Each structure stands twice: as C-alpha cells, then as structure tokens.
Amino acid sequence: MAERGAESDASRWGALKPLRIDLDEVAAAIDHLDRSETDHFLDLENGEVITLSTALLEAVRGGLDLEDTDLPEWVLDDEPLARDAVGDPHGKRYLRIPEGTWIDMGEMRVRFVRAIKTLGLLQQFAEAATIHDGGKRFGELLKTHPDLSTAWYRFEARQKQEWAREWLARIGIEAV
User: Fold this and answer.
1) Cα–Cα distance measured from residue 143 to residue 84, given in angstroms and rounded to the nearest whole number
2) 24-33, 44-53, 103-112: segment of lowest average pLDDT
3) Are strands 173-175 and 17-19 parallel, antiparallel or unpaired?
4) Gap between the Cα atoms of 37 and 47, Å rounded
5) Each residue of 97-125: b (16+ CB within 10 Å) or e?
6) CA–CA dist 136, 91 (Å, integer)
7) Alpha-carbon separation of residue 94 from 32, 40, 54 (angstroms)
8) Cα separation of 62 and 98, whole Å?
9) Rounded to the nearest 5 degrees, what angle is found at the Cα of 56, between the Cα atoms of 53 and 58?
10) pTM higher than 0.90 for the full model?
11) pLDDT band at 172 (very low <50, low <70, confident <90, very high)
12) Any alpha helices (H) in 22-176, and if so which ranges?
C-alpha cells in the first residue's frame, strides 16, 4: 500500500496494542480493491473484520428510513452495526480498512518476477508483469507454469499479510 513505510504516532510513542485479529481477513479486506458493493471495518475492541453493504452505509449516512427503503432484509439486519460504524467518524471503535491499489499489485508482481532465474521465463513474466491489464496476462502465464504459480500464490499471501501488519502497526495495533 502506498503508505507502507510510514510510522504511526502510536508505534513511535509506545508499544503496540496487542489484539487478536485474523491477519488473513484484514489482508483480504485490503485486497478488496472495488468497494462499490461492500466496505470493510476493523472492530478495535474485539479485532473482528466487519463487512457491510455500501448501499446500507450510504443509506445510514443519508438518514435511513426503515419504512421507506428497498434494501433487502438480510442487508438491513446489519443496520445497527452500520449506524455504529458511520457514527464513529474518528475510528474510536470501528476503523475503515483501506483498500490496496492496482499500483501495489503491479509492484508485487514486479518484485516476484525479479526472483525468476531462467532468462526466457524472466523475459516472459517481466513483460506480463508490466502490462497495464490488471494482471490478466500474468495470471494466464502462471497457469502454464505450475511451479511458479505455487510460488507466486505463497509470495502474494505473505506480501498481503505484511501489508496488513504494516497498516495495523500504523494504527497502533499488533495482531496476536
């Protein structure tokens, strides 16, 4: 993520607050780049990652009238939680989890490709990693090289967990 190197005020001035968090869930929320349908929040009291409908959040921000809404009932079940998240603009209890960027993903592909030792493969993957197609050609190329595919998915998972750890440290939290 763009701010990866930034040090949080909390970590600069003291120890990080330990909190039981599923790092994979935080990483998945950061990896969710398109927030048009759902958005993600971290509950700073219990470490839970909360996913809420964007339509519900917008309705709550606009003064949701439960009698005059076309939102499905299963979405409305989260209305109290959405009110809590929207009513907490300074993130004292619920903090919006930021999304990564396509730039972050592209940089990750380039770092992975730099480790390829076979010149022919290096050239193919380098081209695929730098084309602006959202990683489509890179993914197609991985399908034809199972060993590299396995290595890529391990590398990607570790990198995304590191993004999650770094974001948590910036907000003063250590996942335990």
Assistant:
1) 44
2) 103-112
3) parallel
4) 22
5) bbbbeeebbbebbeebbeebeeeeeeebb
6) 36
7) 18, 10, 15
8) 22
9) 110
10) no
11) very high
12) 23-31, 54-61, 73-76, 79-86, 102-113, 119-130, 136-143, 146-170
Mean pLDDT score across all residues of the chain:
88
Q: Is residue 169 exposed (0-12), middle (13-18) or buried (19+ Cβ within 10 Å)?
A: middle
Low-confidence winner among 62-66, 114-118, 136-140, 164-168 (lowest mean pLDDT): 62-66
Burial of 81 (0-12, 13-18, 19+ CB in 10 A): middle
Tell me the C-alpha to C-alpha distance, in Å, between residue 35 and each of 29, 40, 89. 10, 9, 18
Unique residue bearing structure tokens 């790092």:
23
Q: How confident is the model at residue 11 (pLDDT cuts 50, 70, 90)?
A: very low
Domain ranges of the chain: 34-98, 102-168
